[in-house]
Amino acid sequence: MDQTTLEIGRIGEDIAQKYLSSLGFKILEQNWRWRNCEIDIIAIHQDKIVFIEVKTRGRNRIDQGVDISLRQRKRIIHAANSYLLKKGEIKLEARFDLVRVRKTNGDWWVEHIGGAFEVV
Asked: Which fold has domain 5-117?
């Protein structure tokens, strides 16, 4: 039975969270929502607060091109700013990462891109 896009996304986020934890990331939040924005994972790593977008592909094809559109980047940055305002005690430098999770020939692969984009 084929999995839905939502199910594949959840699997990818769980795989990304476990992978990042194994690298020493302290996971603070998963699927943090503010208004119409969502941040997949928020973590602390090496004295930085890291806002992480997870992109999951459940089929053998890999999309080429832009992973995170300019519009999506702006939404993530806006949500990150709101998170930092709500959690006023966090005084760490922020970083925006991307984690690609894909299923190829039955195996899940993870690629972590630190500092995937800058504040625009």
From this structure: Trna Endonuclease; Chain: A, domain 1 (3.40.1350)
Kind of pairing between the strands at 37-45 and 26-34: antiparallel
Q: Would you place residue 51 in the very low, low, confident or very high pLDDT band (cuts 50, 70, 90)? A: very high
pLDDT band at 52 (very low <50, low <70, confident <90, very high): very high
Ordered DSSP codes for 23-36: TT-EEEEEEEEETT
Domain ranges of the chain: 5-117
| Tokens linked to 114 | 């630190």
- Using alpha carbons only, what angle is made at residue 6 by residues 30 and 75, rounded to the nearest 5 degrees? 55
Helix count (H) and strand count (E) of the chain?
2, 5
What digits encode the pLDDT tens for the residues 19-39?
999 999 999 999 999 888 899
Determine the 3-state secondary structure of 20 from DSSP: helix
Cβ atoms 15, 110 nearer than 8 A: yes
35 contacts 75 by C-beta, under 8 angstroms: no
Which is it for the CA torsion 57, 73, 44, 81, positive or negative? negative
